[in-house]
Amino acid sequence: MPPLLVIARLTVQESSRRRLLLALLILTLIVVGVSAWGFNKITTVTRSDGTPLPPEQVSLITSQLLIVVTFMFSGVLALSAAVVAGPLISGEVESGLLLSMLARPLRRSEVVIGKWLGLAALVAVYAAGAGGLELAAVDWATGYLPPHPVELLVFVAAEGLILLSLGMLLSTRLSGITAGVIALVAWLMAWIAGVVGDIGTGLQNQALQNVGVVSHLLLPSDGLWRGAIYAMEPDTLIAAMRALGTAGRANPFAAVDPPPIEFLAWVALWFAIVLGASIASFRTREI
Amino acid sequence: MAELAEKTEAASPRGEAAGTPAVKTVELTKRFGHTVALAGLSMTVPRGEVFGFLGPNGAGKTTAVKLLLGLLKPSSGEGWLLGRPVGDLRTRRRIGYLPELFRYQGWLSAAEVLALHCELAPLPRSSWKDEIGGTLETVGLSDRANDRVSTFSKGMQQRLGLGAALLGEPELVFLDEPTSALDPVGRHDVREIIRGLASRGTAVFLNSHLLSEVEQVCDRVAVVDHGRVIASGTMDELLGGTAVRVRATGLTQADKNRLSGYGRIDDEGELMTFANLDADRVPELVASIVSMGGRVYEVAPRHQTLEDRFLQLLDDEDKS
Questions:
Q1: Closest to B103 (Cβ–Cβ): which among A95, A103, A104?
Q2: What pTM, to 2 d.p., does this model score?
Q3: How far is CA A226 from the centre of its chain?
Q4: CATH number of the domain residue B69 falls in
Q5: How far apart are CA A74 and CA A78, in angstroms?
Q6: Which of A225, A219, A272 has the alpha carbon at shortest distance from A252?
């Protein structure tokens, strides 16, 4: 097996042996079970005259509640990715674990990409598995399925990968705890900057709008989150928000348009830049 | 900063033939900011030789090994391992390394850690079973092969690290303080392992400040202090002189200072050891002590130990 894949396998194996995967599985099953029960309760809600809610209203409420649940889910995924990625390189440098391995015919780029691949596979599989399970539970409980479930899961996974990549880049130079904290703060700031951009859109203030644009370029996590929101919104809701004009676009939990293709291309380039920077940084690090 | 440790092409025609030294450095220097960790290290370690690299804590021993393994980038100077420039990936297939800071995946078993190193080395998969079994036997961990490393004591982890360094019959093995966590039995085992490596022609670069250990297994040594080699040679060359131990009472500190003309004194109160003192001068020394009013109870000339010589070298270095 090529050294790069050996490192990737080792990374996955470590998560498994340290029972991270088991903990995530148990927590996911609990959360999905509880949320399925909660979503099911929406179908039993009645109006003041005792009649049940019409299906359109159940779908609307479910879609909005699903956005909130997904926000939490994507947040936990992004935070977990940042926390795990923070010590990914620096932890093993500081402990000495990498010393004997790097004395083997192993390139530092293979260490960086191998570790990224291993964790990226975990993030992607977890996002697809846990997210898919949640969507299936909501569908079972309410009969509602978001219009673009696959795109939703891709955007949520990509947001996790953004934090994983940022955490790993920082980990090539900073201690694990510092790298993790910086990645978390950057993620929160990017989200807040996205909200500021929304406010700028609502107020038609170009300077505030630019804050959102720049933040989406520097750290595309919020831009990807908007893509996830768009994938969850029923067409009727999108049409209603479009009718509101700029005011309809000033909502951090709503997206009127899908992410532009230029932004998605930038995200791909962003990954390439950050991984390249991680390799360059680790290659020149003295151990 | 230039890329570290991933050269795949030889940068120098020097030493390409099979008869090239195991280790060769020319003015290898490493600075960390204003601190000089290694100052112009020039040395040659022939193949098949057990080479002791001695020095007090912080002398630059580990820095030298890390430079040779490409883990650090030299500030200036050059180095070659097995005839190839430092950092050459192909050369690393023929090298074993036990770091001073030894740490292995606690969530793997001992056999799995060795399998990982077999895979990274890389060794043919068909040879793994024998390599792992034989290595575990050599380092005394056969009965713990399938136990997780996290359950190992520090000494057992160091044994495992030594085993990883021995995989694949390397031509050159770097051992950085290989017995720091071992008990006397373990230290004896390591000496036997080093002798075994030497007998099959493997060069061993032994970093240590345990002088008795070095004295017992090394063909040649270099003593490093403050990043500079202050002495080097074979054991016979370094330990040629005689040390004289004297037990005497009635001497003041001023008297002892005057006696330093006979050589560096390792002063332990009534017991004084004069390093590198010619046996012909012993009567003269005793007469001097008596003339100062001292009472002599014991005079014992003996061969100089590596510790005597080491302390003398460091003392001379401090004075200079």
A1: A95
A2: 0.84
A3: 11
A4: 3.40.50.300
A5: 6
A6: A225
